[in-house]
Amino acid sequence: MSESHQFWMFNDVNLFQVMCPSKLTHHPAAQDGHKVYSKGETIYFTDDPANTLYLIASGKVRILNYSEDGDEVVRAILGKGEMFGELALLGEDKRTEIAEAMDDETMVCSVHTDYLQELMQDDAEFTFKIYKWIGLRMKKMERRIDNLIFKDVRSRLMDFIKEMAQEKGKQTDNGIEVEHFFTHKNLANLIGTSRQTVTTTLNELRDEGLIDFSRRQVIIKKPSAF
């Protein structure tokens, strides 16, 4: 893939509207390139230099930390078209989390923060969109932390399903459908519980007529209940 075409694959996703494709394609020198990672391969570690933002071209990436007790804490699971490492734009000089590929052939493109800051100096609208996106991401993380502290598993799971429906849902005759949904294991990691508890709670919600679900899809049948 040539440098001048490294960002074409984001033309069909919302994030590319934020990343200003017309400018990026005219500045191929600003792009570090792309790299394909295997499942479980680390993209960056805690304390690595923070001077790059990343865009996911294919596959999934999880952002995680480890607690003082050594427990794994998953902060986010991201897919195609989503960005991570964005705190580098806010002055973070070292990574405070780990980024890890979740799928084989996870392709990630990288952009130097120096170049993005150059664009931001020249384009107020671009700057506004970038910071707005970062602000929304940080609010989402704060909300999930609050949920972990103050809400039970059922409430956390329902909030997460509602969030996914708002971001990726499609209204159908059957309800709001969310395709390519998370596995029960990934859901458990994100809301801080066990896979068995997620499965049990999803079954309860289905028995109550609130949702229906299959391997990689959830249908919210009664949105007002969420």
Automatic annotation (TrEMBL):
<protein>
    <submittedName>
        <fullName>cAMP-binding protein</fullName>
    </submittedName>
</protein>
<keyword id="KW-0805">Transcription regulation</keyword>
<dbReference type="Pfam" id="PF00027">
    <property type="entry name" value="cNMP_binding"/>
</dbReference>
<dbReference type="GO" id="GO:0003700">
    <property type="term" value="F:DNA-binding transcription factor activity"/>
</dbReference>
<dbReference type="InterPro" id="IPR018490">
    <property type="entry name" value="cNMP-bd_dom_sf"/>
</dbReference>
<keyword id="KW-0804">Transcription</keyword>
<feature type="domain" description="Cyclic nucleotide-binding">
    <location>
        <begin position="37"/>
        <end position="132"/>
    </location>
</feature>
<dbReference type="GO" id="GO:0003677">
    <property type="term" value="F:DNA binding"/>
</dbReference>
<dbReference type="InterPro" id="IPR050397">
    <property type="entry name" value="Env_Response_Regulators"/>
</dbReference>
<dbReference type="InterPro" id="IPR014710">
    <property type="entry name" value="RmlC-like_jellyroll"/>
</dbReference>
<dbReference type="InterPro" id="IPR000595">
    <property type="entry name" value="cNMP-bd_dom"/>
</dbReference>
<dbReference type="Pfam" id="PF13545">
    <property type="entry name" value="HTH_Crp_2"/>
</dbReference>
<keyword id="KW-0238">DNA-binding</keyword>
<dbReference type="GO" id="GO:0005829">
    <property type="term" value="C:cytosol"/>
</dbReference>
<feature type="domain" description="HTH crp-type">
    <location>
        <begin position="151"/>
        <end position="224"/>
    </location>
</feature>
<dbReference type="InterPro" id="IPR012318">
    <property type="entry name" value="HTH_CRP"/>
</dbReference>
<dbReference type="InterPro" id="IPR036390">
    <property type="entry name" value="WH_DNA-bd_sf"/>
</dbReference>
